[in-house]
Amino acid sequence: MTFDVDLFVIGGGSGGVRAARIAATHGAKVMLAEEYRMGGTCVIRGCVPKKLMVYASQYHEHFADAAGFGWTVGPATFDWPTFITAKDKEIGRLEGLYGANLVKAGVEIVAQRATIAGPQAVRLADGRLVTARHILVATGGRPSSDDTLPGRDLAISSNEVFHLPEQPKRIVIAGGGYIAVEFAGVFAGLGSEVTLVYRGSKILRGFDEDVRDHLMTEYQKKGIRLVMGEVFTGLTRKPGGIAVAFKNGHAPIEADQVLMAIGRKANTAGLGLEAAGVTLGAGGEIIVDEESRTSVPSIYAVGDVTDQVNLTPAAIREGHAFADTVFGGKRWTADHAIIPTAVFSEPEIGTVGLSEEQARLSGCALDIYKATFRPMKHTLSGRDTRMLMKLVVDGETDKVLGVHICGPDAGEMIQLAGIAVKMGATKADFDATMAVHPTAAEELVTMRTPSARYPKG
Ligand SMILES: Cc1cc2nc3c(=O)[nH]c(=O)nc-3n(C[C@H](O)[C@H](O)[C@H](O)COP(=O)(O)OP(=O)(O)OC[C@H]3O[C@@H](n4cnc5c(N)ncnc54)[C@H](O)[C@@H]3O)c2cc1C
User: What is the pTM of this model?
Assistant: First the structure.
């Protein structure tokens, strides 16, 4: 049987773009459909613009801290439209690069929505039917919304937050995950009055408890209002802004913007997956095996649409492994174990491996090493902030099971600590590594006495 293409990729985000490019370099005839903008969530409305916003938000503190080092900085002002224009220009440049690199590799891009018309057929929005030996679904995720919330249309999601015409003076953010937490830090740094509302008792569920506590303390020091154990009951348009009402007794709050960052859902609605026989999970995510195969042998899926590890590097690895395996004669799978990650809060979090709580559930003997200290820079700046470093160590094998950092450059540090943890380094290996002095990171190799010890069981 002949097909129009060897591979049809639905979605031009992190996973789809990598898979399409690698498959094409292996000689496959590849077509890729993108309904919005090339680059997907990460480039257009995720990691990249978010990190640029984080940078923008940090200058405020840099200017203030400079005084302790003898600098006199004139009155600093921030101009939202100037920043948004610069950010959009950079995003546009990256978008162009993504498209150009695909075309250079020989991929045909169709700028429209595609849906699945059968196990080996794709329907384009213009009505065209394209047959494909293999189909890769890489449609990512989208922000979850609370459809039952009265006035929900008054709120924005992370999709819109990058394009606000003006900086909100007051913003209420719903959610306790990393996206909510990061935007709370961004807007606080830019000078907005920020309220972070979360239904649980602490932000960043799943992270090490010390890290969660540490960041909450730091956020409070920055004046971010943390409203825990609360949920919205409704949003109402008022002359002065949007009024937010709460369920558990917190007084209503008025804001200029309300950002809902309450989670993300796999982007599978209306894709025609069920009709083609693809099995979906309870949340609408595509169920795949470790080689990214769905229940239909010709259809594969990578990235957020599978709701496994919803991070760009994971989508990229899965897409690359898929293309090498199916088109390059080189079989391998993306390894989802021990993934270093960062939260670009202020201060940043870097984490890899098991939290103390997760390690305790495993029942092994544990040694916990913990240090909190004032970063050297702030001895002169006078800023009231502390850094946290924590190692979770197997008490029997001495293997480092987890590293958790909250402080400046934690994201950069954890990439390197991640290599050591992935390689199975022991605490003795950390200790045998000479410190880099004077740095904050040296604390990772100089912690001598456990702050807690747990016996086996
Ligand atoms: C605010 C925010 C911040 C983030 N920050 C980070 C971070 O710091 N680090 C990190 O690692 N990850 C981060 N992420 C997560 C990261 O963006 C995703 O894990 C990653 O983009 C997933 O890639 P993907 O290829 O699976 O999907 P996506 O990048 O979402 O790409 C899917 C693409 O498919 C397109 N599409 C969907 N349906 C169709 C269709 N039917 N036809 C044609 N096209 C279609 C979409 O328009 C989209 O472009 C962040 C996400 C958000 C929302």
Answer: 0.97
